[in-house]
Amino acid sequence: MNNRYSPGNALSRLTAAACFILITFCAIGQTSLSSTYFSVTIDNTGYITSMKNTSVTPNKEFSPSDKPSPLLCLFDSKKNVYYYPTTATFGSGSVQLNYPNGSVATVNFSTVNNTYFKFVLQDVVPRNGVDVVQWGPVNTGITNLFGEILGVARDTSEAGNFAIGMMALNDTTMGGPANNPMDNGNFWYVIHSPDPVRFPLPSNLHEGDIFSIGGDGISDVAFYSHPEEYYRILYGDAAYVDNQGRISIQYHARDRRKKRSVYPPPANNLASNAPNHQDIEPVPFVDIKGSAIALYGCPDSVALLGAIKNIVLTEGLPYPTYAINGSSAQVWIKDPARYTPDVATAGGLFDSTISYVSQMGFKAIQAEDLPFYWPNRANNGYIDGSPASSFPFHFTAGNKTHKQFTDISNPLGILMGRHTVTTSLGNGTKDVSPIPSDSLCVINKRILAKGICATDQNITVVDPAYLNEVGSAEGHDASLNIVKIGKELIHYLGVSSTPPYTLQNVTRGYWGTTAAGHQAGDTIYKIQPTLSYGYDGLVPNMNLQDAIATYYGNVSLINGIGYIDWDGEEFLFDQGLGSYSVKRFHRKLFATTTAGGMPYLRIMGATLSEGAWHYQSVWNVGGGSNMYTPGSRSWGIEGKDIRNVAYCNYFPATFGITYGIASGSTVQQFENLEAISVGVGVTYMLQLQQSNVEACSVKYGIFSAIRAWENARAAGAFSRMLKKQLADPTKYWHLSQVNANSWNLYAVDASGNNPVLYQSLTRASGY
Question: pTM of the prediction?
Answer without folding.
Answer: 0.94
